[in-house]
Amino acid sequence: MSYILVRFRNIRVGTVMRIRNISPLLLSLTLGCTTLAQTVLPEAPSQTQDHNIVRDIAIDQKTVWTAPAHVHKSDLKWILPLGAATAALIATDRHTSGALGPSEIRQDISDGVSHLGAAYSTFGASGLMWAVGRWNHKERLQRTGYESLEALADSSIVVLALKTATNRQRPTSDDHDGAFWEGGKSFPSGHAVSSWTMASVVAHEYRSPWIEVAAYGTASAVSVARFTGKNHFASDVLVGSAVGYLIGRFVVHRHHEDTVQSP
After folding, report:
1. Among residues 33, 21, 12, 98, which one has the least CA distance to residue 238?
2. Distance between CA atoms of residues 184 and 45, nearest Å
3. Distance between CA 21 and CA 185 in Å, rounded?
4. The pTM is what?
5. Which of 21, 125, 247, 261: CA 20 to 30 A from 40?
6. Domain edges within the chain
7. Which ranges of the chain does DSSP label H, i.e. alpha helix?
8. How many Cβ atoms from other residues are within 10 Å of residue 175's Cβ?
9. Cα 218 vs. chain centroid, distance in angstroms?
10. Chain segment 68-81, per-residue pLDDT in tens
């Protein structure tokens, strides 16, 4: 216990200042995520609607970016833990990342697992689900593929905006500092966002314990690999995972709600 206290006391003043500077962005991000988390999924629809992917993404983006304006007091049960965890990880990111010594085996494994969260893997798998479902008249599989493609497009836009707004250095930068607004693209982890987005859509559509374990297990492995491979800090991975999960959940909910309400 005393060791932990000493570690926290040794955090540099510059790190604390970075947390203060980025706190408005973290607050806005947390508010948006927790607002999306309040949605409740209705029962799965009995038929697949015709959708316009451009229109659907536009609707999603409006909801995602205006979510902080619809926060309620009850959302504090989500806002406080997520915000506190993110701030704590940012404060200790440099130390936790630095604790990973060089290991060729660990790096190779991490790089290999990371491929599962790359855009060509997630978009490719989602497109394949849609195509196979459409070809074989498998309604749920087709719907899952479509929603996954839509959610991945949504999360990609959010990730691009956050990376551009924060410009955080990666763990492999010269000073290994993880400083914000220094020209990097570390925050949040795009691989974590993509893998958790797809996993969330698949798990919420099928609602099978085995599928949930496989989907979330794969997403977790990708997220951990981004940290152990020193591609991202722990806070990058946490925020990326939360954003991906909630966007995927939101997209499934919206389509189910639209179908249930349609005449």
Report:
1. 33
2. 43
3. 17
4. 0.82
5. 125
6. 2-261
7. 2-9, 13-36, 53-66, 76-98, 104-114, 119-135, 139-166, 190-206, 209-228, 234-261
8. 9
9. 13
10. 777 777 777 888 88
